[in-house]
Amino acid sequence: MERLTDKFGRQISYLRLAVTDRCNLRCQYCMPARGIDIVDRKELLTYKEMYRITRVLSELGVNKVRLTGGEPFVRKDFVKFLEMLSFNDQLDEINITTNGALISKHISKLETLNIGTINLSIDSLNRENFAKITRRDVFDEVYKTLESLEESSLQLKLNVVVQSGVNTHELLDFVGLTKHKNFAVRFIEEMPFNGTGKRATKENWNYTKIIDHIETHYATIHPIKSHKSSTSKNFKVEGYQGSFGIIPAFTRTICGDCNRIRITATGLFKNCLFDEGVFNVRDFIRQGASNDDLKQLFLSIVKEKPENGFVAEANRKRNKNVSESMSTIGG
To answer: From CA 310, how far away is CA 315, in angstroms rounded?
Structure first.
């Protein structure tokens, strides 16, 4: 079987697929308060188109898919799409990133499907601060989701975007959760994908500052060996059940082993989070492309994958400033 491999010898095995650009929250680090200009529904990939794209990619070596948004559970019949996707026997993992406000009633169903990890975005453990960050008062529902997922058979990870001057005082509280709870907390460097561009801050809470802050308060922290293409550097406090990790998403020290591609809700293929998109797969499909055409397209596009996110950003032509909303890209 021919496999997706870039010119640096990296084998692509992980697809991040956005099912919608819509979201029920308005997180400050993701979009302006007014929201974003959402696209017309006919511009979104249909579920059949998403299944076809995923199937073709899985025949080229992609064995892991993460479904994102926007908020994926906002889109009608998303769970039915998960059922459809679970029939793809080439996939080893189907994972979901969600804000947790709409998922509770679906958890028992998800346990019956081929769902691996649920990444729950929760950037504060304080109701008032949560509402300030998300611009919505849904903390109780999200925390209820956290507890329900913890009790389920699904693997749980918490995603925390570290925002200087906003939630950095809560980092130790998140690490503290792992004492009696067997899940992973991942701290993510804040990025400029908020619809306006990089936010001015007094302090730069990058990977180094985050780990130094945690190590100052916890005497014994052990690194955890992760698989080669892991996006996070992972650790465990001695004696704690769970773990924590840091994703250097903005400093981009993880690019060397990147095995990921992205496809947005409108079908835009992205070799890198920081590029501006290289090809619209939706249009190619709707113009009558065969599966073999898709395979040749994907094989050729991946050959152009940049070495790292800095190169991808430098190569942008239409908009040199990285400022798209993460909801548009696919979080």
So the answer is: 9
Is 273 in contact with 284 (CB distance < 8 Å)? no
Distance CA 309, CA 22 (A): 26
**With DSSP H G I counted as helix, E B as strand and the rest as coil, what are the percentages for the chain, rounded to 5?**
30, 20, 50
**In terms of DSSP H, where are the helices of the chain?**
47-58, 78-85, 107-110, 127-134, 139-151, 171-177, 207-217, 281-286, 291-302, 309-314, 326-329
Nearest to 124 by CA among 135, 112, 139, 110: 139
Q: What is the dihedral of CA 169, 253, 244, 72, to 10 degrees?
A: 90
Which residues is 234 bridged to in the sheet?
224, 245
Between 30-34, 136-140, 203-207, the lowest mean confidence (pLDDT) is in 30-34
Q: Are 93 and 15 in contact (CB under 8 A)?
A: no
pLDDT band at 35 (very low <50, low <70, confident <90, very high): confident
For range 75-94, the mean pLDDT: 96
Q: What is the pLDDT of residues 184-236, one digit of tens each?
A: 999 999 988 888 777 778 899 999 999 999 999 998 999 998 888 899 999 99
Q: What value, to the nearest 5°, has the Cα angle with vertex 154 and ends 326 and 3?
A: 60
Instruction: Find out whether 101 and 148 touch, Cβ atoms under 8 Å.
Output: no
pTM (predicted TM-score)? 0.95
Contact 243, 176 (CB under 8 A): no
